[in-house]
Amino acid sequence: MRLDGKVVLITASTRGIGLACVERFAKEGAKVYMGARNLERAQGVADRLNAEGCKVDIVYNDATEKESYQTMVDEVVAKEGRIDVLVNNFGTSNPKKDLDIKETEYETFIKTVDINLASVFLTSQAVIPHMAKNGGGSIINISSVGGIRPDISQIAYGTSKAAINYLTKIIATHAARDNVRCNAVLPGMTATDAVSDNLSDDFKEFFLKHTPIKRMATPEEIAGTVLYFASDDGAFTTGQVVDVSGGFGMPTPVYGDMIEMKSRR
């Protein structure tokens, strides 16, 4: 029960990593608010977890409606009086349009960067005064390994995640005086619906070829790292950008090819 009595807000929380965080945090004793656009789906999750003895509620948030970040925070604070932990999980991209520097239209680039950065900047800006008033808190941004290792496509998504990594450090710097910590978790390829729906089998195979732990992460494994930053276990940790990718990109760049050659012997 590492989050017993804590009030937690998680955005984009009805599936994938966000949902795994909701489930894990609720079972660690937190009162969890699911920031979601699809309130019907979110309510289904909340009902299921509440039936298991957890404490989960829902609050409206739509990334395309920037004012909803402030109203989401205000609603939770009005009900609970505080927010102890914020998980900025929202992130989006369109792999069919978000390509390389030659083929990506500026409109696609700037729209992707804007919506992904707004989800972190606006929610953090809204929640920090409340955390400061109540003695502190923890913000965890879900970034991506693509923000530190350039890809051959998705220039907008990678740029937005690189910017979120910087935002994490500067938020940590600015908010430390209020006892508010801010860290980022950078998943590698994770077994979510988004990966299944948007990435080809060839791409997945190629990615995993260069991952020493030769499989995708589960959303629950990412949630475990997020939990560390949310809990008192990480009370003296701030401004960290942590790669949780199974070692992707860590060894020599020819790692995958060398492993293949070795296996043929």
TrEMBL record:
Coiled-coil spans in chain: none
Keywords, alphabetical: Lipid metabolism, Oxidoreductase, Steroid metabolism
One GO MF term attached to the UniProt entry: oxidoreductase activity
Xref: Gene3D superfamilies: NAD(P)-binding Rossmann-like Domain
InterPro entries in alphabetical order: NAD(P)-bd_dom_sf (IPR036291), Sc_DH/Rdtase_CS (IPR020904), SDR (IPR050259), SDR_fam (IPR002347)
Keyword Lipid metabolism attributed: yes
Listed PROSITE patterns: ADH_SHORT
Record-level GO BP terms: bile acid metabolic process
UniProt similarity note: Belongs to the short-chain dehydrogenases/reductases (SDR) family.
Name of the protein: Oxidoreductase, short chain dehydrogenase/reductase family protein
